[in-house]
Amino acid sequence: MRTLDPATRARTTARVRELVEGVAAALRLSAEVEFIEGYPALINDAEVAAAVRRVGARELGAENVITPLCPQLGVDDFACIAERVPGCYVDLGARRPGGVEEPLHSPRFYPDEGCLPVGAALIAAWAQSRA
Fold first, then answer.
1. Which of 79, 112, 125, 127 gives a 20 to 30 Å CA spacing to 87?
2. Burial environment of residue 44 by CB neighbours within 10 A (0 to 12, 13 to 18, 19 or more)
3. pLDDT, tens digit, for every residue of 75-106?
């Protein structure tokens, strides 16, 4: 189950358990709910995200820095790091111009590796801005 924050995850988990057990009891049955915890919500640190946007606008041009209009439910193990250290997840953009858009974990995903120097430059510029 994916949620945007830990509190919603806890409430939703409790509510699912309550509903399942309630329906089972109404039918004179028993039910057991087991949740296997996956990755936590990936929550960007607001200050780090703002700094990365500023550096990105300076280095790549403001028109190339896109902030999603609403939160996204993608998951990544970076979420575990971001729980402990302020950080910011960045979608670099690796689709080949004119290429077919395939999901990241598709066997047909074929990134434009030209994005790698751009990403490295962005990380280096952000690191220098912190010095």
1. 112
2. middle
3. 789 999 999 999 999 988 888 877 778 887 88
pTM: predicted TM-score of the whole model, two decimal places: 0.79
Question: Could you give the CA distance from residue 2 to residue 34 in angstroms, rounded to a whole number?
Answer: 15
DSSP of 96-109: PTTPPP--TTSTT-
Cβ 41 vs Cβ 114: under 8 Å: no
pLDDT of residue 96: 80
Helix axes 46-60, 115-130, angle to 10 degrees: 120
Angstrom CA distances, 100 to 12, 27, 59, 109, stand at 37, 50, 27, 9
Closest CA to 43 of 95, 8, 16, 94: 8
- Distance of alpha carbon 44 from alpha carbon 32, whole angstroms: 34
**31: CB partners within 8 A, 6+ apart:** 20, 21, 23, 24
pLDDT in tens, 118-131: 999 999 999 999 87
